[in-house]
Design brief:
3 helices
């Protein structure tokens, strides 16, 4: 059986067309509002990341009082800073005298980021990093850390 739009009166056709138009406009407004909310949250997150990067760039290279603290041992640097930031290290592998590969699972990204900043402030340098999202707010990471030469 086919729907015959012409069997309705002119007034009913205008009413049906108006109702369909109203539903379409309402759906369009809802989608635009949802996209605007998502855009605002992404802009806020982007501003947070930019401010953190600006903070990292503002750290003068002459901040060497903490850099000498772990000048002899990369293991001490990684372990002490991870304990300070409550980061659970799953596995480590020495790569040489002054470098180490570190595996971290199920950690909040911001905590991981703050831990890397602390290691940088205390003489560590991130050579390579592989970060993957694991759960809602958690990530898994493989990080190659190098002890900076004084």
């Amino acid at each position: 059986m086919r729907f015959n739009f012409n069997k309705f009166t002119n007034r009913e056709q205008i009413l049906i067309f108006g109702l369909i138009t109203l539903i379409f406009i309402s759906a369009l407004i809802f989608v635009i509002s949802w996209l605007n909310t998502k855009n605002q949250s992404l802009e806020k997150e982007n501003q947070n990341i930019i401010s953190r990067l600006n903070y990292i760039e503002s750290i003068p290279s002459s901040v060497s009082s903490n850099r000498n603290l772990y000048s002899d041992n990369i293991s001490i640097l990684v372990n002490s800073t991870s304990k300070e930031k409550n980061i659970q290290i799953d596995r480590t592998q020495p790569l040489g005298d002054n470098s180490m590969m570190v595996w971290v699972n199920e950690v909040n990204f911001i905590d991981l980021y703050n831990w890397m900043i602390l290691m940088g402030e205390q003489g560590g340098e991130i050579e390579k990093m592989n970060v993957r999202k694991s759960k809602k707010d958690k990530v898994n990471a493989q990080i190659s850390v190098l002890l900076k030469a004084n």
